[in-house]
Design brief:
Blueprint (H helix, E strand, L loop, with lengths): L1 E2 L10 E5 L4 H14 L5 E6 L5 H13 L3 E6 L6 H11 L5 E4 L3 E3 L3 H11 L3 E7 L20 H12 L15 E4 L1 H7 L10 H14 L3 E12 L9 H8 L3 H11 L3 H12 L13
Parallel strand pairs: 2-3, 2-5, 3-4, 7-9
Antiparallel strand pairs: 1-4, 5-8, 6-9, 7-8
Helix pairs in contact: 1-2, 5-10
């Protein structure tokens, strides 16, 4: 199945969206994609045999009307979250991609800002935007889950973030609400480790740390905001597998969350948000 047409917008990385079981979050995510992403952007909905009849109807309806260049694939039998995403990433070769969590709600301009962040620094392997439930990239408080902003609030946050200085500071690792992944870095680091991890949350951390070990950076894209109902999380045994392979990782993350080296960056976004007027109605739907 396919939908959308190319509009002449400069081509962004393909957006990979694993399809979720929850029909409501899927519907909200697809609506936000349409509202906040330039027409003609390539989107791949990858379904690991998760969508039920209502979810399939939502996808069919969206494919028929979206201005994005959307493709949908569905496995006959589930492969597992990490193995399925690894299969999808492998199909993209060494192309850059943006992976969006299926329960995320991206703000206006989110994909364009992520791509621009990575273009400014060739050493960036992953770029992660702000999120109200983003752990090290959480806003307004590091490591805390804040209420998901509504449409008007998300539009204001996105406008405020776009005015931030483009410093792209280091994060301990990429975070799974939304992440740009540079294809060359991923190719050198290898695929996702589906044998060791059952969640994308943990497999992404592992991939981030492998890329960092090869000299790449895992950066915050402070000019973009993606909302989410709650944080992602590991599957049973994933944290133990991470700690066994990366013993320095748990204390490093704990120090980051405790001391928050990006506290000034978070405060700067709050200050800029205070200076943003409420959006006009047409701005709520501007890519």
């Amino acid at each position: 199945m396919a939908g959308g047409v190319h509009s002449g917008t400069p081509e962004l990385p393909v957006v990979l969206l694993p399809v979720a079981l929850d029909d409501g979050t899927l519907d909200a995510c697809l609506a936000a994609l349409d509202a906040g992403t330039p027409a003609g952007t390539r989107v791949w909905l990858a379904d690991d045999a998760q969508a039920g009849p209502r979810g399939l109807a939502i996808i069919e309806r969206w494919l028929g009307r979206t201005p994005l260049r959307a493709e949908y694939t569905r496995r006959q039998r589930p492969l597992g979250e990490v193995a399925h995403l690894d299969e999808v990433l492998a199909a993209c070769g060494d192309a850059d991609v943006i992976v969006l969590a299926p329960d995320a709600v991206p703000g206006p301009g989110w994909a364009r800002q992520l791509a621009a962040c990575a273009a400014r620094d060739g050493a960036i392997a992953t770029a992660t935007p702000w999120c109200n439930a983003g752990e090290a990239a959480a806003w307004p408080a590091c490591g805390e889950v804040s209420p998901q902003p509504d449409g008007a609030g998300l539009a204001r946050l996105s406008r405020a973030a776009e005015t931030m200085p483009q410093l792209h500071p280091e994060l301990p690792a990429a975070i799974d609400h939304a992440v740009f992944i540079r294809g060359r870095a991923r190719a050198k680091a290898g695929g996702l480790d589906a044998a060791s991890y059952a969640s994308w949350y943990a497999a992404l951390i592992d991939l981030s740390l492998r890329m960092a070990g090869l000299g790449w950076r895992n950066a915050l894209c402070e000019t973009a905001f993606v909302a989410r109902r709650g944080e992602g999380g590991p599957a049973d045994g994933d944290l133990e597998a991470l700690a066994a392979r990366w013993p320095a990782w748990p204390p490093r993350l704990a120090r980051f969350l405790m001391h928050d080296p990006l506290v000034d960056c978070r405060r700067a976004l709050a200050q800029r948000l205070d200076g943003i007027d409420p959006p006009a109605q047409h701005e709520l739907f501007a890519p």
